[in-house]
Amino acid sequence: MDVIHLKYPYQLSQESNKQAYSLAVGFFDGVHKGHQAVINAAKATAKELGIKSAVMTFDPHPSIVLGGRNEKVFYITPLAQKLDTFEELSIDAVFVVNFTSDFAKLTPEQFVQYFILDLNVQHVTAGFDYSFGAFGKGNMDMMKQLAHGQFGVTIVEKQQDVEEKISSTRIRNALQDGDMEQVRTLLGRAFEVPGIVVHGDKRGRTMGFPTANVQAMEGCYIPATGVYAVKILVQNKWYNGVCNVGYKPTFKNPEEKQLSIEVHILNFDKNIYGEEVVVGWYKRIRSERKFSGIDALIEQIEHDKQQAIHYFEQLC
Which pathway does UniProt place it in (predicted)? Predict the structure, then answer.
Protein backbone atom coordinates (compact mmCIF):
# COMPACT_ATOMS: atom_id res chain seq x y z
CA MET A 1 0.00 0.00 0.00
CA ASP A 2 1.42 3.39 -1.00
CA VAL A 3 1.04 6.20 1.54
CA ILE A 4 1.25 9.66 -0.01
CA HIS A 5 1.33 12.71 2.26
CA LEU A 6 -0.05 15.91 0.72
CA LYS A 7 -0.07 19.49 1.89
CA TYR A 8 -1.71 22.48 0.21
CA PRO A 9 -0.17 23.93 -1.83
CA TYR A 10 1.61 20.80 -3.00
CA GLN A 11 3.34 19.38 -6.04
CA LEU A 12 3.01 15.88 -7.43
CA SER A 13 5.67 14.11 -9.41
CA GLN A 14 4.74 13.22 -12.98
CA GLU A 15 5.01 9.55 -12.19
CA SER A 16 2.48 9.64 -9.34
CA ASN A 17 0.12 11.75 -11.44
CA LYS A 18 -0.12 9.06 -14.14
CA GLN A 19 -1.95 6.61 -11.87
CA ALA A 20 -5.75 6.62 -12.02
CA TYR A 21 -7.75 6.09 -8.83
CA SER A 22 -11.15 5.20 -7.49
CA LEU A 23 -11.12 7.29 -4.32
CA ALA A 24 -12.98 6.93 -1.01
CA VAL A 25 -12.83 10.24 0.83
CA GLY A 26 -13.54 11.04 4.48
CA PHE A 27 -11.89 11.44 7.87
CA PHE A 28 -12.62 7.78 8.68
CA ASP A 29 -11.83 7.87 12.41
CA GLY A 30 -12.36 4.32 13.65
CA VAL A 31 -12.81 2.91 10.14
CA HIS A 32 -16.14 1.57 11.45
CA LYS A 33 -18.80 -0.34 9.51
CA GLY A 34 -20.14 2.83 7.90
CA HIS A 35 -16.65 3.81 6.74
CA GLN A 36 -16.04 0.29 5.49
CA ALA A 37 -19.16 0.52 3.32
CA VAL A 38 -17.72 3.63 1.65
CA ILE A 39 -14.27 2.05 1.20
CA ASN A 40 -15.66 -1.22 -0.14
CA ALA A 41 -17.81 0.68 -2.65
CA ALA A 42 -14.69 2.51 -3.89
CA LYS A 43 -12.83 -0.80 -4.14
CA ALA A 44 -15.67 -2.33 -6.16
CA THR A 45 -15.58 0.61 -8.58
CA ALA A 46 -11.79 0.34 -8.87
CA LYS A 47 -12.15 -3.30 -9.86
CA GLU A 48 -14.90 -2.49 -12.33
CA LEU A 49 -12.86 0.28 -13.98
CA GLY A 50 -9.55 -1.56 -13.80
CA ILE A 51 -7.84 1.19 -11.78
CA LYS A 52 -6.24 1.52 -8.33
CA SER A 53 -8.29 1.85 -5.15
CA ALA A 54 -7.42 4.74 -2.86
CA VAL A 55 -8.53 6.41 0.36
CA MET A 56 -8.14 10.10 1.22
CA THR A 57 -8.05 10.98 4.89
CA PHE A 58 -7.01 14.08 6.82
CA ASP A 59 -4.64 14.82 9.68
CA PRO A 60 -5.05 16.31 12.23
CA HIS A 61 -8.76 16.32 13.05
CA PRO A 62 -10.42 19.37 11.43
CA SER A 63 -11.84 20.55 14.76
CA ILE A 64 -8.29 20.98 16.10
CA VAL A 65 -7.60 23.50 13.34
CA LEU A 66 -11.03 25.11 13.12
CA GLY A 67 -11.82 25.17 16.84
CA GLY A 68 -15.39 25.44 17.99
CA ARG A 69 -15.30 22.37 20.21
CA ASN A 70 -15.10 22.68 23.96
CA GLU A 71 -14.41 19.02 24.63
CA LYS A 72 -11.00 17.49 23.97
CA VAL A 73 -10.85 15.52 20.73
CA PHE A 74 -9.52 11.99 20.94
CA TYR A 75 -8.95 9.63 18.05
CA ILE A 76 -10.53 6.19 17.93
CA THR A 77 -7.74 5.26 15.53
CA PRO A 78 -4.63 7.46 15.54
CA LEU A 79 -3.15 7.87 12.08
CA ALA A 80 -0.71 4.94 12.32
CA GLN A 81 -3.53 2.58 13.35
CA LYS A 82 -5.82 3.98 10.67
CA LEU A 83 -3.21 3.25 8.00
CA ASP A 84 -2.81 -0.31 9.30
CA THR A 85 -6.57 -0.80 9.03
CA PHE A 86 -6.64 0.54 5.47
CA GLU A 87 -3.92 -1.94 4.58
CA GLU A 88 -5.94 -4.78 6.10
CA LEU A 89 -8.79 -3.69 3.81
CA SER A 90 -6.43 -4.15 0.81
CA ILE A 91 -6.38 -0.52 -0.33
CA ASP A 92 -3.77 0.27 -2.98
CA ALA A 93 -2.97 3.83 -1.93
CA VAL A 94 -3.75 6.30 0.84
CA PHE A 95 -3.57 10.07 0.50
CA VAL A 96 -3.01 11.73 3.89
CA VAL A 97 -3.89 15.40 3.52
CA ASN A 98 -2.44 17.77 6.09
CA PHE A 99 -5.47 19.69 7.39
CA THR A 100 -4.22 23.26 7.84
CA SER A 101 -5.81 26.71 8.01
CA ASP A 102 -4.91 27.29 4.36
CA PHE A 103 -6.45 23.96 3.33
CA ALA A 104 -9.62 24.82 5.27
CA LYS A 105 -10.02 28.00 3.18
CA LEU A 106 -10.24 26.15 -0.14
CA THR A 107 -13.52 26.60 -1.99
CA PRO A 108 -15.36 23.42 -3.03
CA GLU A 109 -14.23 24.13 -6.62
CA GLN A 110 -10.59 24.41 -5.54
CA PHE A 111 -10.80 21.22 -3.51
CA VAL A 112 -12.13 19.33 -6.53
CA GLN A 113 -9.42 20.76 -8.78
CA TYR A 114 -6.43 20.17 -6.51
CA PHE A 115 -7.44 17.01 -4.65
CA ILE A 116 -9.60 15.19 -7.20
CA LEU A 117 -8.76 16.19 -10.77
CA ASP A 118 -5.04 16.89 -10.24
CA LEU A 119 -4.69 13.46 -8.58
CA ASN A 120 -6.21 11.78 -11.64
CA VAL A 121 -9.16 10.49 -9.64
CA GLN A 122 -11.63 8.79 -11.99
CA HIS A 123 -14.31 8.11 -9.40
CA VAL A 124 -15.14 9.56 -5.98
CA THR A 125 -17.05 7.69 -3.27
CA ALA A 126 -18.15 9.24 0.03
CA GLY A 127 -20.88 9.06 2.63
CA PHE A 128 -24.15 10.92 2.20
CA ASP A 129 -23.13 13.51 4.80
CA TYR A 130 -19.59 14.19 3.59
CA SER A 131 -18.81 17.91 3.16
CA PHE A 132 -15.80 19.67 1.70
CA GLY A 133 -14.48 23.15 1.05
CA ALA A 134 -14.52 26.23 3.29
CA PHE A 135 -17.25 26.13 5.95
CA GLY A 136 -18.32 22.72 4.58
CA LYS A 137 -20.16 24.42 1.73
CA GLY A 138 -19.59 21.50 -0.62
CA ASN A 139 -21.78 18.41 -0.29
CA MET A 140 -22.04 15.28 -2.39
CA ASP A 141 -24.72 16.71 -4.66
CA MET A 142 -22.33 19.57 -5.42
CA MET A 143 -19.56 17.02 -5.99
CA LYS A 144 -21.68 15.56 -8.80
CA GLN A 145 -22.20 19.02 -10.28
CA LEU A 146 -18.50 19.90 -10.11
CA ALA A 147 -17.50 16.62 -11.78
CA HIS A 148 -18.68 17.93 -15.20
CA GLY A 149 -18.40 14.39 -16.51
CA GLN A 150 -14.67 14.22 -15.68
CA PHE A 151 -15.11 11.71 -12.86
CA GLY A 152 -17.89 9.54 -11.48
CA VAL A 153 -19.49 9.99 -8.07
CA THR A 154 -21.02 7.41 -5.71
CA ILE A 155 -22.92 8.47 -2.59
CA VAL A 156 -23.18 5.81 0.11
CA GLU A 157 -26.37 6.13 2.12
CA LYS A 158 -26.59 6.16 5.91
CA GLN A 159 -25.43 2.92 7.52
CA GLN A 160 -27.28 2.10 10.70
CA ASP A 161 -28.00 -0.71 13.13
CA VAL A 162 -31.22 -1.36 14.99
CA GLU A 163 -30.72 1.82 17.04
CA GLU A 164 -29.40 4.63 14.87
CA LYS A 165 -26.67 5.77 12.50
CA ILE A 166 -23.32 4.07 12.93
CA SER A 167 -20.98 6.92 13.79
CA SER A 168 -17.64 7.78 15.35
CA THR A 169 -19.50 9.80 18.01
CA ARG A 170 -21.42 6.73 19.16
CA ILE A 171 -18.17 4.76 19.34
CA ARG A 172 -16.44 7.48 21.38
CA ASN A 173 -19.34 7.57 23.84
CA ALA A 174 -19.27 3.77 24.18
CA LEU A 175 -15.50 3.85 24.78
CA GLN A 176 -15.95 6.42 27.52
CA ASP A 177 -18.58 4.15 29.11
CA GLY A 178 -16.40 1.04 28.71
CA ASP A 179 -19.12 -0.61 26.60
CA MET A 180 -16.69 -2.63 24.49
CA GLU A 181 -19.33 -4.99 23.14
CA GLN A 182 -21.14 -2.09 21.51
CA VAL A 183 -17.82 -0.72 20.25
CA ARG A 184 -17.00 -4.07 18.68
CA THR A 185 -20.44 -4.22 17.02
CA LEU A 186 -20.05 -0.75 15.52
CA LEU A 187 -16.45 -1.23 14.41
CA GLY A 188 -16.99 -4.74 13.09
CA ARG A 189 -13.90 -5.77 15.06
CA ALA A 190 -12.48 -5.39 18.57
CA PHE A 191 -11.13 -2.01 19.61
CA GLU A 192 -7.35 -2.29 19.71
CA VAL A 193 -4.60 -0.43 21.54
CA PRO A 194 -1.00 -1.07 20.47
CA GLY A 195 1.76 -0.65 23.01
CA ILE A 196 4.95 -2.00 24.48
CA VAL A 197 5.46 -4.16 27.58
CA VAL A 198 7.36 -2.25 30.25
CA HIS A 199 8.43 -2.98 33.82
CA GLY A 200 5.79 -2.39 36.47
CA ASP A 201 5.80 -2.92 40.22
CA LYS A 202 5.58 -6.73 39.69
CA ARG A 203 3.02 -7.00 42.51
CA GLY A 204 0.76 -9.30 40.46
CA ARG A 205 3.48 -11.95 40.28
CA THR A 206 3.68 -12.15 44.08
CA MET A 207 -0.11 -12.74 44.18
CA GLY A 208 -0.03 -15.54 41.61
CA PHE A 209 -1.34 -13.39 38.76
CA PRO A 210 1.65 -12.09 36.76
CA THR A 211 0.71 -9.27 34.42
CA ALA A 212 2.13 -7.57 31.36
CA ASN A 213 2.30 -3.85 32.06
CA VAL A 214 1.43 -2.23 28.72
CA GLN A 215 2.48 1.30 27.86
CA ALA A 216 0.03 2.37 25.19
CA MET A 217 1.18 3.99 21.97
CA GLU A 218 0.99 7.76 22.22
CA GLY A 219 -2.32 9.14 21.03
CA CYS A 220 -4.35 6.01 21.75
CA TYR A 221 -7.58 6.33 23.71
CA ILE A 222 -7.81 4.11 26.77
CA PRO A 223 -11.34 2.90 27.66
CA ALA A 224 -12.98 3.64 31.01
CA THR A 225 -11.26 2.29 34.11
CA GLY A 226 -12.24 -1.21 35.14
CA VAL A 227 -11.56 -4.88 34.50
CA TYR A 228 -11.99 -6.30 30.99
CA ALA A 229 -11.91 -9.55 29.08
CA VAL A 230 -9.26 -8.88 26.43
CA LYS A 231 -7.09 -10.56 23.85
CA ILE A 232 -3.44 -9.63 23.51
CA LEU A 233 -1.23 -10.09 20.46
CA VAL A 234 2.22 -11.26 21.49
CA GLN A 235 4.83 -12.33 18.93
CA ASN A 236 2.15 -12.68 16.22
CA LYS A 237 -0.14 -14.88 18.34
CA TRP A 238 -3.36 -13.87 20.09
CA TYR A 239 -3.90 -14.94 23.72
CA ASN A 240 -6.94 -14.50 25.96
CA GLY A 241 -6.50 -12.42 29.06
CA VAL A 242 -8.03 -10.29 31.77
CA CYS A 243 -7.01 -6.65 31.97
CA ASN A 244 -7.17 -4.03 34.70
CA VAL A 245 -7.19 -0.41 33.61
CA GLY A 246 -6.94 2.09 36.39
CA TYR A 247 -5.06 3.58 39.28
CA LYS A 248 -4.75 0.54 41.60
CA PRO A 249 -6.56 2.14 44.57
CA THR A 250 -5.87 -0.83 46.86
CA PHE A 251 -2.16 -0.03 46.77
CA LYS A 252 -1.74 3.53 45.53
CA ASN A 253 -2.46 6.91 47.02
CA PRO A 254 -5.66 8.12 45.33
CA GLU A 255 -3.90 11.45 44.74
CA GLU A 256 -1.32 9.73 42.50
CA LYS A 257 -3.14 9.65 39.16
CA GLN A 258 -0.96 7.35 37.07
CA LEU A 259 -3.10 5.17 34.80
CA SER A 260 -1.88 1.64 34.20
CA ILE A 261 -2.89 -1.13 31.79
CA GLU A 262 -2.08 -4.55 33.22
CA VAL A 263 -2.94 -7.76 31.37
CA HIS A 264 -2.89 -11.18 33.00
CA ILE A 265 -2.39 -13.46 29.99
CA LEU A 266 -4.09 -16.83 30.33
CA ASN A 267 -1.97 -19.96 29.87
CA PHE A 268 1.16 -17.92 29.26
CA ASP A 269 4.56 -17.97 30.94
CA LYS A 270 7.14 -15.95 29.03
CA ASN A 271 9.30 -12.94 29.72
CA ILE A 272 8.08 -10.36 27.18
CA TYR A 273 9.54 -7.08 28.44
CA GLY A 274 10.18 -4.78 25.50
CA GLU A 275 7.83 -6.66 23.18
CA GLU A 276 5.39 -4.71 21.02
CA VAL A 277 1.86 -5.96 21.71
CA VAL A 278 -1.72 -5.12 20.79
CA VAL A 279 -4.57 -5.28 23.32
CA GLY A 280 -8.01 -6.10 21.86
CA TRP A 281 -10.90 -5.09 24.14
CA TYR A 282 -13.99 -7.34 24.29
CA LYS A 283 -16.08 -6.94 27.46
CA ARG A 284 -16.03 -4.87 30.63
CA ILE A 285 -16.36 -7.23 33.59
CA ARG A 286 -16.59 -4.71 36.41
CA SER A 287 -15.52 -1.27 37.58
CA GLU A 288 -12.27 -0.67 39.45
CA ARG A 289 -12.59 -0.54 43.21
CA LYS A 290 -10.53 -0.55 46.38
CA PHE A 291 -10.33 -3.78 48.40
CA SER A 292 -9.87 -4.24 52.14
CA GLY A 293 -6.73 -6.34 51.72
CA ILE A 294 -4.66 -8.67 49.56
CA ASP A 295 -6.79 -11.76 50.19
CA ALA A 296 -9.99 -10.04 49.08
CA LEU A 297 -8.21 -8.74 45.97
CA ILE A 298 -6.81 -12.18 45.07
CA GLU A 299 -10.27 -13.74 45.44
CA GLN A 300 -11.76 -11.07 43.15
CA ILE A 301 -9.01 -11.43 40.53
CA GLU A 302 -9.64 -15.19 40.38
CA HIS A 303 -13.34 -14.48 39.90
CA ASP A 304 -12.52 -11.95 37.13
CA LYS A 305 -10.27 -14.51 35.46
CA GLN A 306 -13.01 -17.14 35.46
CA GLN A 307 -15.47 -14.64 34.00
CA ALA A 308 -13.04 -13.86 31.18
CA ILE A 309 -12.49 -17.57 30.50
CA HIS A 310 -16.25 -18.15 30.39
CA TYR A 311 -16.77 -15.14 28.11
CA PHE A 312 -14.25 -16.36 25.53
CA GLU A 313 -15.65 -19.91 25.69
CA GLN A 314 -19.08 -18.51 24.81
CA LEU A 315 -17.59 -16.28 22.12
CA CYS A 316 -16.07 -19.17 20.18
Answer: Cofactor biosynthesis; FAD biosynthesis; FAD from FMN: step 1/1; Cofactor biosynthesis; FMN biosynthesis; FMN from riboflavin (ATP route): step 1/1
pLDDT of residue 248: 62
DSSP 277: E
Separation between Cα atoms, residue 182 and residue 104, nearest integer Å: 33
Q: In 50-135, which residue ranges form alpha helices assigned H by DSSP?
A: 62-66, 79-88, 101-104, 108-112
- Whether the Cβ atoms of residue 29 and residue 172 lie closer than 8 Å to each other: no
Summarize pLDDT for 210-237 with one digit per residue, the tens: 888 999 988 889 999 999 999 999 999 9
Neighbours of 268 (CB within 10 A): 16
Omega of the bond prior to 9 within 30 degrees of 0, cis? yes
Nearest in space to 77 (alpha carbons), one of 220, 238, 200: 220
For the chain, domains (ranges, CATH) are: 2-156 (3.40.50.620), 190-315 (2.40.30.30)
Q: Kind and range of the H or E element at 263?
A: strand 260-265
